[in-house]
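In response to the reviewer comment on reproducibility (Comment 2.3), we provide here a single inverse folding case reported in full, input and output, so that an independent group could reproduce the run without further information from us. The C-alpha cells appear first.
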C-alpha cells in the first residue's frame, strides 16, 4: 500500500488523541496528524503551477506515536517504513493559506521512493491501466533526478529541515534528513495525491444499504479485471486464483476527500477514441458521460455500450468512492504462476460472465463474505469471517448483477484498448530488433580489437538473472566481451540500484538481476565513445520518439517510461516491452474466455446455443451437460473445436434453411 489509508496504518487510530504534530508551524492547533490529514485539500499534482516552495513539513507514518517526543528508536530508524511494492513513503504537507491566516490551511501529497526506477515507472504504468478500466486511483506522476524539479524538491526539504532545527523539532529534522538521503540515492520518485480514507473492509457505509452495496460491487467487478491483467494478488482475496489479498490496498474515500476535484482538468482523449471511434456518441452526449475520478482524470465510461451506472448515481450514493492503490505492473511472473493462470483464468472469467451462482460465490469471496452468497467448500468462509448482512435475498441478486456489470464494463474497455497495447508492443518489438542489431554490430567491431581489455562495453552477468537464453535474442546469447565488476562505483546506476535493493525490502523486478537490461545500460556507455555508433543510436532514439512516444502522447497514454534521460531510453523500451508481453498474454486469456456464452435452457435436460455456447467448456460442465449435438451445414472442421474427453458429441449435417426439418434430431436428443 502507499496511499496511507487509515488510522491503523498511521498508528494514530484515536482521533481524539492528544498527539501533537511537532511541525515547524507553532500557530497550528494541537491536533493529531490523522485529524490534520482529514482536513487537508487535495492537490493537483499535475498542474504546471505546482510549487514546492510551500512545503512545510514531512511525515513518516510510523514515526508518529502516542508521544510527540521522538524516541531513541525513532532517531536511529532509517527507511524503516516499507510498502507492499517496496520502498519508503513520506507524507508532504504544504501551506495553502495566506500569510498570517489562522487556522492555517494545508494540502497534502504522498512521496513514494521505490527501490528502483523500474518499480516506480511500473507503478505509474499500472495506474494508467486502472484509469482506462474506470478504476479510481490517486493522481500520480514520476519525477526524475535529471529534471529541474528534483533540485526544487531538495531545496524545499532542506528549507523544511532548517525550520525544524530552528524550532528544536528533532523528529522533523530527522525525517527531512532521511528524505534528503533518499533523494541522493534515488533516480526518481512517485508523487501522488494523498487519499484520506479507510480500508474497504473496515468501513460499513459501502455495505449497509442496497444502493451503496451495488456501487461497491460494481467497483469490485472493475477492480477484479484490473488485477487479472496486472496479476496482482495483493489486493482482492481470491482463493481459486491463489490470491491472499490485502484490503489495505482498497480505500473508501468520502466526498470531503475529493471535493476539489471539479477544479482539475477533465479532458481525456484516450486511445479508446482513436482506435474505436465508432463507439463514441455525439460530442454533447459524450461530455455528459464524463465522470471525474479520484485521480482527477475522466473515467473510461465513454462508450454507448457501457452501463449507465455512473450517470444515474444519486447524490448521496456518490458520497464515497472505492479507490485502488499500489497497482504496479509486474515484470515477469514466475513460470509456475503463469502455468496456473492459464488454467484458472479462463474458468473464472467464463463462469463469472455466464453463471449467476458462480458470480455470487465469487463476490462473496472477494468481499470477504460481506456481499454475495457462500457457495461450494472452496468459497465457504464461515470459519474465517462472520458477517450478517442486512440485505435481503432480492437485494443480493441486484448486487451480484452490479458486480457482473462492472466486470463486463471493464472487460469491454479492455477489449477496446487491447488494440492500442498490441500496437505499442509491436512497435517496441520492431525497434528493439534494430537496437539489438546495433549492439551486435558494435560487439563484432570491438572483437577486431584487443579482446583482453577489461573495460569492454558489454556486461556479462552470469548470476541473479530471471532471463533464460531462450528469451534473449539469438544474436545476443553469446556476448563477446565482459565488463570487470571492479570497475563499478556508486556513481553508476547499476551499483546505485544494487545498493537500494540491499537496503530496502522489495518484490518483483527490483529484487532480481536483469542480465539483458544491464547489457543495454553498458552498451549505452560504450556507444558514447564511438562517434559513428553514437550517431546511429541517436537516430534510433529519434525513431522511438516518433513511433512510440508520439503514439502514447497522441492517445494521452502515459506509460511512466521514456521520461528520463536519453541514456535510459533503450532500457525503458526493453523493460516496457517485457511488461507488455506478459500483459498481452493475460489479456488474451481473458478475451478468449469472454468469447463464450451460456446456452438457453429449453427443457429440464436440454439446452440450445450457438458456436460460442458450444466452446464454453466450463459453462457446459458447470450446467452438468454431458452430450453435445452439433448441427452444421457440413461436419468438416467440427472436430477441431470439440473436446471428446469431456463431452459425448453427435454431429449432424443439415441444410442451411430455416424450413429444414430437424424434428428427428431433437427426438434423438430427447431419447
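Designed residues, in position order:
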Amino acid at each position: 500500500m502507499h496511499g496511507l489509508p487509515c488510522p491503523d496504518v498511521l498508528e494514530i487510530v484515536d482521533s481524539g488523541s492528544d498527539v501533537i504534530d511537532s511541525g515547524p508551524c507553532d500557530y497550528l492547533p494541537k491536533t493529531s496528524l490523522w485529524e490534520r490529514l482529514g482536513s487537508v485539500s487535495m492537490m493537483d499534482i499535475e498542474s504546471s503551477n505546482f510549487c514546492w516552495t510551500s512545503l512545510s513539513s514531512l511525515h513518516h507514518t510510523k514515526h508518529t506515536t502516542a508521544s510527540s517526543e521522538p524516541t531513541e528508536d525513532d532517531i536511529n530508524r532509517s527507511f524503516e517504513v516499507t510498502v507492499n511494492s517496496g520502498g519508503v513513503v513520506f507524507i508532504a504537507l504544504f501551506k495553502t493559506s495566506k500569510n498570517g491566516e489562522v487556522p492555517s490551511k494545508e494540502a497534502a501529497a504522498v512521496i513514494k521512493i521505490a527501490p528502483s526506477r523500474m518499480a516506480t515507472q511500473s507503478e505509474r504504468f499500472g495506474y494508467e491501466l486502472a484509469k482506462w478500466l474506470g478504476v479510481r486511483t490517486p493522481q500520480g506522476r514520476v519525477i526524475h533526478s535529471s529534471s529541474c524539479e528534483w533540485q526544487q524538491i531538495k531545496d524545499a526539504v532542506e528549507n523544511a529541515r532548517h525550520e525544524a532545527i530552528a524550532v528544536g523539532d528533532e523528529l522533523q529534522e530527522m525525517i527531512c534528513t532521511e528524505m534528503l538521503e533518499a533523494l541522493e540515492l534515488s533516480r526518481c520518485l512517485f508523487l501522488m495525491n494523498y487519499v484520506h480514507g479507510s480500508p474497504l473492509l473496515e468501513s460499513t457505509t459501502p455495505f449497509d444499504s442496497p444502493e451503496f452495496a451495488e456501487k461497491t460491487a460494481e467497483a469490485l467487478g472493475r477492480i477484479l479485471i484490473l488485477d487479472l491483467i496486472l496479476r496482482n494478488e495483493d489486493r482482492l482475496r481470491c482463493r481459486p486464483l491463489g490470491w491472499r489479498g490485502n484490503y489495505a490496498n482498497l480505500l473508501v474515500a468520502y466526498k470531503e476527500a475529493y471535493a476539489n476535484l471539479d477544479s482539475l482538468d477533465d479532458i481525456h482523449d484516450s486511445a479508446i477514441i482513436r482506435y474505436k471511434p465508432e463507439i463514441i456518441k455525439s460530442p454533447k452526449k459524450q461530455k455528459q458521460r464524463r465522470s471525474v475520478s479520484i485521480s482527477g482524470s475522466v473515467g473510461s465510461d465513454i462508450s454507448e455500450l457501457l452501463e449507465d451506472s455512473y450517470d444515474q448515481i444519486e447524490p448521496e450514493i456518490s458520497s464515497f468512492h472505492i479507490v485502488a492503490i499500489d497497482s504496479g505492473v509486474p515484470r515477469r511472473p514466475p513460470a509456475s504462476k503463469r502455468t496456473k493462470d492459464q488454467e484458472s483464468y479462463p474458468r473464472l472469467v467464463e463462469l463469472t460472465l455466464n453463471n449467476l451462482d458462480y458470480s455470487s460465490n465469487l463476490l462473496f469471496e472477494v468481499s470477504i463474505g460481506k456481499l454475495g452468497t457462500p457457495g461450494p467448500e472452496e468459497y465457504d468462509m464461515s470459519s474465517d469471517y462472520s458477517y450478517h448482512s442486512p440485505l435481503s435475498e432480492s437485494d443480493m441478486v441486484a448486487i451480484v448483477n452490479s458486480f457482473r456489470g462492472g466486470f463486463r464494463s471493464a472487460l469491454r474497455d479492455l477489449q477496446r484498448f487491447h488494440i492500442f497495447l498490441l500496437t505499442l508492443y509491436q512497435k517496441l518489438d520492431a525497434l528493439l530488433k534494430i537496437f539489438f542489431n546495433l549492439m551486435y554490430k558494435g560487439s563484432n567491431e570491438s572483437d577486431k580489437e584487443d579482446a583482453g581489455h577489461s573495460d569492454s562495453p558489454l556486461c556479462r552477468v552470469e548470476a541473479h538473472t530471471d532471463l533464460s537464453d531462450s528469451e534473449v535474442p539469438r544474436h545476443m546469447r553469446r556476448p563477446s566481451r565482459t565488463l570487470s565488476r571492479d570497475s563499478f562505483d556508486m556513481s553508476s546506476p547499476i551499483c546505485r540500484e544494487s545498493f537500494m535493493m540491499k537496503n530496502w525490502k522489495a518484490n518483483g523486478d527490483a529484487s532480481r538481476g536483469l542480465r539483458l537490461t544491464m547489457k543495454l545500460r553498458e552498451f549505452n556507455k560504450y556507444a558514447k565513445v564511438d562517434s559513428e555508433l553514437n550517431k546511429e543510436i541517436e537516430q534510433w532514439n529519434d525513431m522511438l520518439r516518433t513511433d512510440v512516444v508520439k503514439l502514447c502522447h497522441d492517445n494521452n497514454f502515459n506509460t511512466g517510461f521514456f521520461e528520463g534521460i536519453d541514456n535510459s531510453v533503450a532500457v525503458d523500451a526493453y523493460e516496457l516491452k517485457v511488461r507488455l508481453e506478459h500483459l498481452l498474454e493475460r489479456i488474451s486469456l481473458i478475451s478468449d474466455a469472454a468469447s463464450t456464452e451460456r446456452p438457453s435452457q429449453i427443457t429440464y435436460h436440454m439446452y440450445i446455443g450457438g458456436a460460442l455456447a458450444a466452446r464454453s467448456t466450463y459453462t457446459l460442465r458447470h450446467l452438468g451437460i454431458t452430450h453435445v449435438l452439433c448441427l452444421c451445414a457440413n461436419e468438416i472442421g467440427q472436430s477441431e473445436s470439440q473436446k471428446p474427453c469431456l463431452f459425448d458429441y453427435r454431429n449432424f449435417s443439415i441444410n442451411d434453411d430455416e424450413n429444414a426439418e430437424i424434428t428427428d434430431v431433437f427426438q434423438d436428443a430427447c431419447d
